[in-house]
From TrEMBL:
Occurrences of domain EamA (ranges): 3-138, 148-281
Protein name from the UniProt record: Putative DMT superfamily transporter inner membrane protein
Annotated GO CC locations: membrane
Keyword Zinc attached: no
Coiled coil: none
Organism taxonomic ancestry: Bacteria, Bacillati, Bacillota, Clostridia, Eubacteriales
Record key words, sorted: Membrane, Transmembrane, Transmembrane helix
One Pfam short name: EamA
Ranges annotated as spanning the membrane: 32-54, 66-90, 96-115, 124-143, 149-166, 178-201, 213-232, 239-258, 264-283
Keyword Membrane: yes
Family classification: Belongs to the EamA transporter family.
Top-rank lineage group of the source organism: Bacteria
InterPro entries for the chain: EamA_dom (IPR000620), EmrE-like (IPR037185)
Length: 291
């Protein structure tokens, strides 16, 4: 269990840097480039682990699997992750991170309609309290700059929730490593087609100075991050490991203040508090279901 806690803390820190590091490179490369390169490198990192898992599980990928991975890959990479990278160009990295961290809230209704999972009273409380938090962050009484970025980050969160629910249908069959690798690979191939179709440059803008950031996004965030998160699930449980997304909305603003010198307004602090409370209630509800 101690090893599991270490994995959870490490995964939470890595994922909390996603929007911050993405913000650092937003001025050099467009969102499509950053996302493509990030997941291309991530696939290279996961490849040897995936080959080993395929042999161990004796899994052969067929046509039906490929169609499934096209769906999950499309939702995750060219839609959700591109939207998240676009959002940091219009709002603070901390705000985008908080908006994205609300994805477990939207998972609940998607799971109800798609997976026919029951909705408990804790789920309702979690959604309501988290939505209050989102409202505080949007601050409708004094809408200023960044509203476009907030909406894009929220769209990223919602589409990621849909991806999460759809992934539940088969992730047990493949295992985390295999599932993530093929989702990333197929999603990145779809993104490559989009880049070619719309004449979007692939490596233009990549320089010696921003290469370390690109490598961090690919190796640490996309490769190591998911490996550590899957290790956390194995050492604890899916419910306990999900605390990673409970920690992120609290940790990401701190990272953004330190690395980007961003300021956190009072209404955002209140919003974070509501989202943390809502996430905690949802987490406790999951725990009680798994007892």
């Amino acid at each position: 269990m101690k090893k599991g806690i270490i994995y959870i803390v490490l995964a939470a820190f890595i994922f909390s840097t996603m929007e911050v590091v993405g913000k650092m490179i937003a001025g050099d490369l467009n969102a499509f480039q950053v996302t493509f390169l990030r997941f291309l490198i991530g696939c290279v990192v996961l490849l040897p682990l995936t080959v080993n898992e395929l042999k161990k599980r004796s899994i052969k990928i067929n046509k039906d699997d490929i169609i499934y991975f096209i769906l999950t890959g499309l939702l995750c990479i060219p839609i959700s992750m591109v939207l998240l990278q676009v959002s940091v160009g219009y709002t603070k990295a901390s705000t985008a991170a908080i908006m994205f961290s609300t994805n477990p809230v939207f998972t609940i209704p998607f799971a109800y309609f798609i997976l026919k999972e029951s909705i408990r009273k804790e789920n309702i409380y979690s959604i309501a309290i988290s939505l209050i938090g989102i409202l505080f962050i949007f601050n409708p009484l004094s809408i200023g700059g960044g509203i476009k970025g907030m909406l894009i980050a929220l769209a990223s969160s919602i589409t990621f929730s849909l991806y999460t629910v759809i992934s539940k249908k088969r992730i047990e069959k493949y295992g985390g490593i295999i599932f993530n690798f093929f989702t990333f690979l197929v999603g990145d191939l779809v993104l490559l087609v989009i880049l070619i179709m719309f004449n979007i440059p692939i490596i233009k803008g990549v320089t010696v100075s921003n290469m370390p950031i690109i490598l961090y996004l690919g190796i640490i965030l996309t490769g190591l991050g998911y490996v550590v998160y899957i290790a956390a699930i194995k050492e604890t449980s899916p419910v306990v490991a999900s605390t990673v997304f409970f920690i992120k909305p609290a940790l990401a603003p701190i990272v953004s203040v330190i690395l980007l010198k961003e300021s956190i307004t009072f209404n955002v602090i209140i919003g974070i508090a509501f989202i943390l409370i809502g996430s905690y209630i949802g987490f406790r509800g999951k725990q009680s279901q798994n007892i």
